[in-house]
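User: Before I run my own analysis I want an independent prediction to cross-check against. Here's the chain; please return only the structure tokens and, at the end, one sentence I can use as a sanity check.
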Amino acid sequence: MEQVDVLVIGSGFGGSTAAALLAAEGSSVALVEAAAEWGGSAGKFQRKDFRFPVGATLGMGYERDGIHDKINRRLGIEIEKRPLHTVMNVAIADRVYPYYQNREQFLRMWDAKLPHAAPAIRSFYREVWHIAGLLRRHMVHFPVVPPATFQEAEALLKGFHPAVLRCIPLLQKPLGYVIQKHGLQHEEDFMHFLNGVLLDSMQTEADACSALLGCTALDIYHRGAWYIEGGLYRQIEALVQSCKSNGGTVKKGRRIVGIARSESGLWEAEDHKGGRWQAANVVLNTTAEDAASLLPAEDRAKLSGRLRRKAVAQFQWGAFTMYLALKDTLTEKTPLFHQFLVNPDKQAEAGNHFFVSISAAADSHRAPAGYRTVTVSTHINPDDWKDKTAYDQYAAAIKKAVLAKLETVFPGFTDEAVHMFTAGPLAWQHYTRRTGGKVGGFPQTPDNALYRAISHRSGITGLWLCGDNIFPGAGSIGASSSGVHCARSITGRQPV
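Assistant: Structure tokens:
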């Protein structure tokens, strides 16, 4: 049996961040991953000469004092990246709205596209960006809401400014409140634009999204959006290597089948190959539902009430993903990221709304010269995919709709495909070990966000939680922040 201070289960952004920071702080750490690749939903797979990022592809938080920048500077990690001046093209039917990183260029785009609504759009974004700027003063210190220790209170107070008090009335408001304040709720294309961006980043649309988190999400692209050479799996692999370099044990292909307290008070875990681990602290980088399933019944009853309730009752999206490798027929100026809403009169899911990530022409980490790889993802309701016949029909319909749209935007593009793979919720469940293939985190509505989110404290001494189900929520930045919270709570020190 291997004995360590901390056993980290799962190597997504939360787990790999926690493991790397704990090892750098001097803890003995074991990082155990069930899959054959690191990263979970941010991992990769390879087919011959082509490498495909599994899920997340667009990098945020790499600007100076961004979340990933702060973590990477603490650990001495360098990531190959390039800034995106056009973050993505957002297509609503046949109308394209470029999402420019530069704020003034972005506002001028709206001036040209929707001149009758331009003054209201400008005032809306000025308020959104101001609120986000106030919140960022807190974010850089990795606060926890509500704070439970001196270190957490200190982190929260460090970002305090009297102007932050204006955010308090928005704590339980949806972003729809701010939209209506500026009279934009009936501006259809603008609402479709906001809905698509927030569905991808916050897992819910604008009317329902937490106002404070929605402002942060709409601001962050303008602080810096990045193309990561190879994909975000390279950030994960750098964190894993940092953990290893600081004396940590890292093992892939080891699925933990159960954890329990021993008579000595230490946690004991067993993997599916019979390996056994003992640790004073366990960090679970899993969904809330899967975290509970690893524990014996008597320990599940000790978990926090919020964790137990949301583990079984809270809706989460699934994903249907397509992976293509094809000859490069694109121009140099083609944006690398695209979001499509094919029919604005239908729901933004299941092939009608999807996100496209294209590898850069010179990115040899993903494709050989003259080729590119493409990842396409769309939100689905995993409950609709439980029947085998329905599963196959949904998959075929989404694939057909996506390819048809891509052909209209990039004629001849998909004809050049040398590889094409698809992954529905069963594939996501198999490779990421997330029950039902639920990915992306909880919808960040006021009922799930901020002080109503699941804490990284499980309610059981020595058992910690991180990942996209845990405060502060969805996305690589949120998941990494939860890993920082675990490291700080375990060591009693601010690790970043």
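Sanity check: The chain has a mean pLDDT of 95.
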